[in-house]
Amino acid sequence: MRILITGGAGFIGSHLAEALLERGDEVDLIDDLSTGSMANIDRLKGRRGFGYVIDTVMNAPLMAELVDRCDVVYHLAAAVGVRLIVESPVRTISTNIRGTEICLEMASKKRKRVVLASTSEVYGKSDRIPFREDDDLVFGATVKSRWSYACSKAIDEFLALACHRERGLPVVICRFFNIVGPRQTGRYGMVFPRLIGQALRGEDLTVYGTGGQTRSFLYISDLIAALLLLDGCPGAEGKVINIGSDDEIAIGALARRIVEITESRSRITHVPYERAYEEGFEDMGRRAADITRLRSLTGFSISVGLDEMIRRTAASMREDR
Ligand code: UDP
Q1: Alpha-carbon distance 85 to 278, whole Å?
Q2: For site-directed labelling of 3, which of 10, 57, 165, 279 has its Cα 20 to 30 A away?
Q3: Would you call the peptide bond into 234 cis, given omega within 30 degrees of 0 as the criterion?
Q4: What is the structure's pLDDT at 219?
Q5: Which of 11, 12, 35, 82 maximizes ligand 1 atoms within 8 Å of its Cβ, making it the mutation to test the pocket?
Q6: In this structure, which residue's CA is closest to atom 5 in ligand 1?
Q7: For residue 92, what pLDDT is reported?
Q8: What is the CATH number of domain 2-180+217-244+288-298?
Q9: What pLDDT does 31 receive?
Q10: Whose CA is nearest to atom 18 of ligand 1?
Q11: Is 149 a catalytic residue?
Q12: Is 95 touching ligand 1 by the criterion CB < 6 Å?
């Protein structure tokens, strides 16, 4: 099979490209390097069946050509990272909506299977834990720019489902929950690489707010395993599927665990949200995935636990340094 990965030089895209090449597929990727990097795909260059284009998914003629050549599209290109989203909401909205519209339009014309990367952000402030795919989505006011990300991804989902119903597009919508691992950068806000990096450098670990807010982390190899299981799974088409974990941890507790496992001498400091992001910033109190649907479609199970995620991510960050 020939696979197109948009956003393929990013953290998730580059791991996916590697796994697909390993499986014997041919992989083309497109990335504008806004948050991805050439370093992520260096090891893939020169491998048989691998090609890449540095350009934007908003280049419609190019996307038409790339989609035409492939059998399956993984649409991962998006503005990511809460910090980036708060700082650049215009870019977030237009990349996430226009980029996806172009991708879905090209794929609909040619009836190419699309796997759309969505996010647990779409659940917003919902307090029904764990989050189920058919739960209501609860967003804050439009003056709070964080919600532009959730809303733009929700629009992507609406459009994908509409293309499925009206045009027969074979599409699978995956909501990724706090995926972590090597090559994820802390530059755009992600807590895992930020806190581990701080611990390794001996800096204070910055816990935002009280640190009582929870997240459920999933290691990159488990995400890739889930995507490969979903590939070719006919029951997945036209569905929204959570890919994550239901094992919640409070961010304050995560920071303590990171200090312990990395044997760091760093201290933990609390930073108010308005200093970390912007005045009036709203965070989610809790987030955990209900993965019943994924399990029953594919038999998926999680293989990497939190301590191991910390150890592996820290080891790869040490190597990079
Ligand atoms: N966070 C933190 N310190 C940091 C970066 C993030 O305490 O240096 C918090 C953030 O406020 C949120 C959680 O960690 O409550 C997860 O943040 P991230 O940006 O990784 O993901 P998301 O909020 O999208 O789940």
Answers
A1: 11
A2: 165
A3: no
A4: 98
A5: 82
A6: 191
A7: 87
A8: 3.40.50.720
A9: 98
A10: 190
A11: yes
A12: no
